């Protein structure tokens, strides 16, 4: 069963929602954050982007109407396998945009009266819920007692029962007669029915039976027979389950009645509706039901009460679903409408291009986007990243209108620089000094550990010494650890750096720096751990009892596709447990940057096999040699795009001071130039 | 061509009718253009207030509450949202200061609220809408008073507040005309006062001031200034302009910002009440009224 369905705008306002069980708001929030804003959607085995998102125990599926800025989200438990949700999303999207599209297009809309949509949604769920809602774990034990899809059966019987399909009435109008009929029945019934609160579930079932008898004699009796049949034929063990099923039905009824009471006050209608829904949620939360039973009884009661599954709605939904399936195919059929036609359309197209106000179609976008992609490739953006950026721009602009006096090209440029800004802007800015200060200050001071990884020859040691210089300037005591125990001369290289830096710091009277080394051939992870202990525990010295504030660990360069070398990084990450892991990437490298970033990021898992830093792996990139590439700073984009890890520093020169933070605006300017 | 040539001939001919038509057109056209432009300009002259603040502080909820009277359920925003709202009768606009309380002939003034996304990646939307000379009357910085009690939440809020205030300060100091340096009023709306874990307004103010001072310090020391690879000649001059408030001062008080035309007020309230209770936002309305 669906847990919740929400319709929200891109500005975050929930226009309409229906929840069947309490779903924490953070679930949808994290969908918005991860998928829409950070564009970090999970990929399946084929590398295709999935259209579902898993969070905690929920699975979320969504679709969006870009031009209206509306997102449709369906939430259900991951244990269930609901194949009909896609159809539901498509149908809801089509119906909702049809009903409210015009209102949504107005400016300053923050609220819609979406109450009439309740009825439509109910009808939709009833039609599309194909009953495949069984728990996957129970599936094999229960065997194939799959319910026949109720959509056909239900709609058939409904056509017979409701002679003329009632018009699309707002819910209260419909509900009132139903309730009054039931009250009538309660007064005259021999059962002496008490008011059906959710607790007293028993009497309500006969009520619905008699109700069905009233509304349509022949058909309904068949339906009641069927309902009874399902009840009696259910195995004995499922007795309580079926009562639970009825229980649920009562809940919906109680809600109806309540709704009708509140009908008198226009403004309170909605509020009442929500709390009623919450009531029924609680009911449902407790139940563990055999789904077949629920479905059968629901169908019985629903159709029996003369529900309003409208025939035209039915047809409409079918049409929507059919067209959504067909849409995939006939994209390339148009095109050659004759020479003259194409000439005039091109002329008006040109005119529109200048004046603006043109609605962008896929064909308009293909060529400029191709140009844009080539432009990005020239800027050294990896093909994969460029293609994905262009795809996101296309999705952003498709069926949009260009503004007045803007050409397609400039619209695309604008959208692209927006996309680039979004990719490059970090979610939370890194303030290294602040982090260090809080870590080394009481109550529990410990040295701040930074380690640097990367491919051979990208400038790990150089950037390490640049960071060391920066930290020294801020009066920190720095311990440099020679973690490269492999390459000849690596330790000596660091020693030279440390000698230079200590000379500099002595002259400027800032900080202090030392080298920690164990020679060659040792295990880098152990050396790193020893260094951290050394920095921590030489107690009794002045200050906060630590010898050093910051530990900077250099590592051996390794090829990212060499699994033997890469796997030792995992151990390193766990033993040394650095606060920050930075990866150095060259600005010079091209397409390979994506693979480098990915392979390094995935090595840093903690002992539970989870990627550190909230499943990202590393904390930041240092892009070195930026001064050598001029405008071609595409590597920034490729690496961030591949992993979602922000760029924290840029190496921009040969001196110790040539380390910079990233200015997103500057980078985007260079890329778009 | 054949059909248009008589018309052209007539238009250039010295007949009375042609002259009359030309006269009418030449006289009416400026009037029409003026009325069109005039109408367009007046339509947008609503005083605007910008809602800004970290994600989850309650900006969109506040927007819906002000616009509709009841807060809608909301999720993380991805885009800006505007809404017009009317000042409630409980709040008094500064323009109506001398009007009698019993004078009901006058409508309460309308205003435009602009909601911005607070997610870290999307803050440039908000900062971008600050820089141009929009008719901003004020800025409402929404703070989640429950989140500020944790170190991480406090840091995030203070960093954002620091950035916003710095933009305002730069806008003030760098503007050449007197129009840009008019200054702007900032309301720190301490939201979610109804929560059990929330901090009282005075404490929030104090903590924010301390934290902004700390952010300012590390920012100035960080000085890994934004890259302009090889183009950073003006490093020294930037020092002062990137320092929020009085340069070199140890403490930061919101009052320091008045020098730059930024008047900051801290007012508590809550958008959502418990159960049936309504939110308490009168203080915020009052501030808006004062700054209209």
Give me the CATH architecture of the largest domain in chain A, please: 3-Layer(aba) Sandwich
Share of residues in helices of chain A: 40-55%
**Spans of chain B with pLDDT under 50 lasting ≥5 residues?**
227-237
User: How many strand units of chain B?
Assistant: 6
Alpha-beta classification of chain B = alpha/beta
Helical percentage of chain B: 40-55%
Largest sheet of chain A: 8 strands, mixed
Discrete helix count of chain A: 25
Question: In order across it, which strands form the biggest sheet of chain A?
Answer: 8-7-9-6-10-11-12-13
Oligomer: heterodimer
Structural Rg of chain A: 33 Å
How much of the sequence lies in strands of chain A comes to: 5-15%
What is the count of distinct domains of chain B? 2
Report the portion of residues of chain B in β strands. Answer: 5-15%
Output the structural class of chain A.
alpha/beta
Arithmetic mean pLDDT of chain B: 80
- Name of the CATH superfamily of the largest domain in chain A: P-loop containing nucleotide triphosphate hydrolases
Rounded to an integer, what's the Rg of chain B over CA atoms? 25 Å
Mean pLDDT of chain A: 71
Encode the helix/strand succession of chain B as letters: HHEHEEHEHEHHEH
The CATH architecture term of the largest domain in chain B is 3-Layer(aba) Sandwich
Main location (chain A): endoplasmic reticulum
Protein name (chain A): Signal recognition particle receptor subunit alpha homolog
Biased composition (Polar residues) (chain A): 186-207, 229-245
Biased composition (Low complexity) (chain A): 149-158
What does this molecule look like?
Chain A: It is a peripheral membrane protein. The complex is a heterodimer of chains A (673) and B (292). Chain A is an alpha/beta fold. Chain A has four domains: 1-155 and 309-327, Beta-Lactamase; 170-307, no CATH class; 359-424; 432-672, P-loop containing nucleotide triphosphate hydrolases (Rossmann fold, 3-Layer(aba) Sandwich). Helix content of chain A is 52%, strand content 12%. Chain A has helices spanning 25-37, 85-105, 117-128, 136-142, 150-161, 171-188, 204-215, 217-233, 239-261, 269-286, 291-304, 311-326, 339-355, 362-378, 383-397, 408-424, 432-440, 460-473, 490-508, 524-537, 563-576, 592-601, 612-615, 634-643, 664-672; strands spanning 2-9, 14-19, 52-55, 58-65, 70-77, 448-454, 477-483, 512-516, 550-555, 580-586, 620-624, 647-651, 659-660. In chain A, a hairpin with a 4-residue loop joins β4 (58-65) and β5 (70-77). The longest helix of chain A is centred in the middle third of the chain and has 23 residues, at 239-261. Chain A is globular and about 80 Å long. In chain B, α5 links the parallel β4 and β5 (184-191). Chain B has two domains: 16-45; 46-291, Rossmann fold (3-Layer(aba) Sandwich). With 292 residues, chain B is of the alpha/beta class. In chain B, α5 crosses α6 (201-222). The model of chain B is unreliable at 227-237 (pLDDT under 50). At the A-B interface, β1, α1, α17 and β13 of A face α3, β2, α5 and α6 of B.
């Amino acid at each position: 069963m669906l847990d919740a369905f929400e319709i929200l705008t891109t500005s975050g306002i929930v226009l309409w929602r229906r929840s069947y069980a309490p779903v924490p708001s953070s679930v949808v929030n994290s969908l918005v954050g991860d998928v829409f804003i950070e564009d970090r959607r999970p990929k399946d085995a084929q590398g295709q982007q999935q259209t579902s998102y898993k969070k905690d125990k929920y699975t979320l599926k969504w679709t969006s109407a870009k031009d209206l800025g509306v997102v449709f989200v369906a939430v259900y438990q991951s244990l269930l396998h609901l194949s009909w949700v896609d159809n539901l999303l498509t149908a809801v999207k089509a119906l909702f945009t049809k009903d409210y599209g015009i209102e949504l297009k107005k400016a300053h809309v923050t609220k819609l009266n979406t109450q009439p949509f309740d009825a439509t949604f109910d009808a939709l769920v009833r039609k599309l819920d194909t009953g495949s809602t069984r728990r996957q774990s129970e599936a094999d034990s229960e065997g194939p007692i799959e319910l026949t899809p109720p959509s056909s059966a239900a709609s058939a019987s409904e056509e017979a029962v409701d002679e003329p399909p009632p018009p699309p009435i707002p819910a209260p109008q419909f509900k009132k007669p139903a309730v009054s009929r039931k009250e009538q029945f309660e007064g005259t019934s021999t059962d002496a029915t008490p008011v059906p609160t959710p607790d007293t579930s028993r009497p309500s079932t006969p009520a619905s039976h008699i109700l069905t008898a009233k509304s349509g004699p022949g058909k309904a009796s068949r339906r009641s027979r069927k309902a009874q049949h399902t009840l009696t034929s259910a195995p004995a063990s499922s007795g309580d389950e079926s009562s639970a099923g009825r229980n649920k039905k009562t809940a919906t009824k109680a809600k109806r009645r309540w709704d009708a009471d509140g009908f008198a006050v226009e403004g309170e209608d909605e509020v009442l509706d929500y709390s009623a829904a919450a009531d029924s949620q609680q009911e449902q939360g407790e139940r563990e039901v055999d789904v077949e039973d629920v479905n059968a009884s629901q169908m019985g009661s629903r159709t029996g009460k003369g529900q309003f599954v409208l025939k035209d709605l039915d047809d409409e939904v079918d049409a929507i679903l059919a067209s959504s399936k067909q849409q995939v195919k006939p994209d390339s059929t148009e095109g050659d409408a004759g020479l003259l036609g194409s000439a005039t359309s091109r002329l008006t197209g040109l005119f529109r291009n200048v004046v603006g106000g043109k609605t962008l179609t896929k064909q308009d976008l293909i060529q400029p986007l191709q140009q844009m992609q080539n432009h990005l490739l020239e800027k050294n953006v990896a093909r994969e990243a460029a293609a994905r950026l262009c795809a996101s721009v296309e999705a952003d602009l498709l069926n949009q209108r260009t503004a007045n006096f803007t050409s397609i090209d400039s619209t695309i440029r604008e959208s692209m620089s927006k996309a680039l800004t979004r990719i490059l802007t970090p979610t939370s800015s890194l303030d290294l000094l602040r982090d260090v200060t809080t870590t080394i200050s009481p109550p529990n001071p410990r040295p701040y550990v930074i380690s640097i990884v990367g491919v051979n020859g990208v400038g790990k040691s150089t950037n390490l010494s640049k960071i060391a210089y920066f930290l020294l300037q801020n009066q920190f005591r720095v311990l440099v650890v020679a973690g490269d125990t492999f390459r000849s001369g690596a330790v000596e290289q660091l020693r030279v750096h440390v000698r230079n830096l200590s000379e500099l710091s002595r002259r400027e009277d800032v900080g202090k720096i030392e080298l920690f080394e164990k020679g060659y051939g040792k295990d880098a992870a152990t050396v790193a751990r020893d260094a951290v202990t050394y920095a921590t525990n030489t107690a009794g010295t002045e200050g906060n009892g630590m010898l050093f504030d910051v530990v900077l660990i250099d590592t051996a360069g390794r090829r990212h596709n060499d699994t033997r070398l890469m796997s030792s990084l995992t151990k390193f990450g766990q033993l040394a447990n650095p606060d920050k892991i930075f990866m150095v990437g060259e600005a010079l490298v091209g397409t390979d940057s994506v693979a480098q970033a990915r392979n390094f990021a995935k090595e840093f898992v903690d002992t539970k096999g989870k990627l550190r830093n909230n499943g990202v792996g590393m904390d930041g990139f240092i892009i070195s040699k930026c001064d050598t590439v001029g405008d071609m700073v595409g590597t920034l984009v490729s690496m961030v795009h591949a992993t979602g890890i922000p760029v924290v520093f840029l190496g921009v020169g040969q001196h110790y001071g040539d380390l910079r933070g990233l200015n997103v605006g500057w980078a985007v300017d260079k890329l778009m130039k | 061509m054949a059909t248009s040539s008589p018309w052209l001939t007539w238009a250039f001919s010295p007949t009375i009718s042609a002259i009359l038509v030309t006269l009418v057109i030449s006289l009416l056209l400026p009037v029409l253009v003026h009325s069109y432009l005039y109408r367009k300009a007046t339509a947008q002259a609503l005083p605007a207030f910008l809602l800004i603040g970290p994600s989850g502080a309650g900006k969109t909820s506040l927007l819906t509450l002000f616009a509709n009277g009841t807060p809608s359920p909301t999720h993380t925003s991805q885009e800006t949202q505007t809404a017009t709202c009317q000042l409630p009768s409980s709040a008094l606009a500064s323009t109506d200061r001398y009007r009698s309380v019993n004078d009901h002939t006058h409508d309460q003034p309308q205003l435009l609220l602009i909601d911005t996304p607070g997610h870290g990646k999307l803050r440039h939307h908000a900062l971008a809408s600050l820089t141009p000379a929009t008719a901003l009357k004020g800025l409402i910085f929404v703070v989640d008073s429950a989140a500020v009690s944790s170190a991480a939440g406090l840091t995030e809020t203070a960093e954002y507040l620091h950035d916003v205030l710095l933009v305002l300060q730069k806008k003030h100091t760098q503007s050449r005309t007197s129009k840009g340096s008019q200054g702007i009023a900032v309301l720190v709306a301490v939201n979610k006062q109804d929560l059990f874990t929330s901090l009282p307004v005075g404490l929030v103010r104090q903590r924010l001031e301390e934290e902004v001072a700390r952010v300012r310090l590390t920012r100035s020391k960080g000085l890994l200034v934004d890259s302009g690879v090889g183009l950073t000649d003006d490093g020294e001059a930037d020092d002062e302009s990137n320092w929020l408030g009085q340069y070199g001062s140890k403490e930061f008080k919101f009052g320091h910002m008045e020098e730059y035309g930024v008047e900051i007020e801290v007012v508590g309230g809550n958008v959502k009440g418990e159960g049936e209770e309504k939110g308490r936002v009168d203080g915020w309305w009052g501030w808006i009224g004062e700054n209209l």
